[in-house]
């Protein structure tokens, strides 16, 4: 990834796109990086998102939402230039609870595309990246190409 | 033979236990999920709100919201089944129940199958326990909107059960 101005522009455009999606705005998601078939999006911990009040760990559903969004962004940034995408199937494995008050960052790669389907892998980390991912995901997304 | 308990006493106990389970979780409130009960059967209800939209062009619910709704329904149904026997046998006091004492199952993995886009209206979900073991459980969840027979999403997950005294 270079710091070329057009890539900054693309990340900014992607950020504006994500910010226009009401649920992504509700979770304060931020696009960190966008590459060829790759995306990195982060979001802060919030009291509202806690799934287990005993520990303050955010709910798995929040991680799913971040992974799904990042996966979709990776599909749209693939060189095929898909006009739209929708999730067909997403499997998430939860390795450990995300540490309370940590920012969560998801990285997704669109590693294969066919005429109509995009295959995606994603990982989510809290601020202790050396402890490994909090969750990993695999998904199949639709790929809507222009006529 | 013991006389059956008055119906209001039974309902009050079960509803108090269910709200102790659901109301203490901030994320369930954030998404606007409620649970309706018929005997021990639960139906999750996701009340529509504009902030749940992921694709404003269609518009459609965010896929992550759908996944979260199914996962919440699975966890609540599993926890409910776990405490039902203690509740009915009088070993658990619904009025004094709190989430601090109650350990929730932890999701090991969850797979969502998106069948149709989520319409901008209320959604419903019901979970079935495929296997409910001491340590591991497997749960299937179905989500629908207008027609019970036309699912918009379904999910399957494995859960690690909390240690029991």
TrEMBL record, chain A:
It comes from the Bacteria. This is Putative domain 1. GO terms for molecular function: 1,4-dihydroxy-2-naphthoyl-CoA thioesterase activity. Keywords: Hydrolase. The keyword Metal-binding does not apply. SUPFAM superfamilies: Thioesterase/thiol ester dehydrase-isomerase. GO terms for cellular component: cytosol. InterPro entries: HotDog_dom_sf (IPR029069), PAAI_dom (IPR003736), Thioestr_dom (IPR006683). Residues 56-129 form the Thioesterase domain.
From TrEMBL, chain B:
Gene3D superfamilies: Hotdog Thioesterase (3.10.129.10). GO terms for molecular function: thiolester hydrolase activity. InterPro entries: HotDog_dom_sf, Thioestr_dom. Residues 61-150 form the Thioesterase domain. Coiled coil: none annotated. Pfam families: 4HBT. This is Thioesterase domain-containing protein. The lineage of its organism: Bacteria, Pseudomonadati, Pseudomonadota, Alphaproteobacteria, Rhodobacterales.
């Amino acid at each position: 990834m270079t710091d070329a101005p057009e890539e900054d522009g693309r990340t900014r455009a992607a950020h504006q796109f994500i910010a226009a999606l009401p649920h992504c705005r509700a979770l304060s998601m931020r696009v960190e990086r966008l590459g060829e078939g790759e995306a990195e999006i982060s979001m802060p911990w919030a009291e509202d998102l806690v799934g287990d009040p005993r520990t303050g760990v955010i709910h798995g559903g929040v991680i799913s939402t971040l992974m799904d969004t990042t996966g979709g962004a990776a599909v749209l940034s693939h060189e095929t230039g898909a006009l739209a995408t929708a999730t067909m199937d997403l499997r998430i494995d939860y390795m450990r609870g995300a540490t309370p008050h940590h920012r969560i960052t998801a990285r997704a790669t669109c590693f294969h595309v066919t005429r109509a389907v995009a295959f995606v892998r994603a990982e989510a980390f809290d601020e202790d990246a050396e402890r490994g991912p909090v969750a990993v995901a695999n998904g199949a997304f639709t790929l809507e190409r222009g006529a | 033979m013991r006389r059956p308990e008055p119906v209001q006493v039974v309902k009050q106990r079960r509803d108090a236990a269910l709200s102790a389970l659901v109301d203490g979780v901030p994320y369930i409130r954030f998404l606007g999920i409620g649970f309706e009960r018929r005997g021990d059967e639960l139906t999750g209800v996701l009340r529509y709100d504009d902030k749940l939209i992921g694709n404003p062009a269609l518009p459609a619910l965010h896929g992550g919201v759908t996944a979260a709704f199914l996962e919440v329904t699975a966890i609540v149904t599993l926890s409910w089944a776990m405490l039902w026997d203690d509740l009915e046998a009088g070993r658990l006091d619904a009025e004094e129940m709190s989430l601090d004492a109650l350990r929730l199952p932890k999701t090991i993995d969850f797979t969502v199958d998106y069948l149709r886009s989520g319409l901008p209206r209320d959604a419903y979900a019901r979970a079935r326990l495929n296997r409910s073991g001491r340590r591991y459980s497997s749960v299937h969840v179905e989500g629908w909107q207008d027609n019970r027979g036309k699912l918009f999403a379904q999910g399957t997950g494995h859960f690690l059960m909390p240690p029991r005294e």
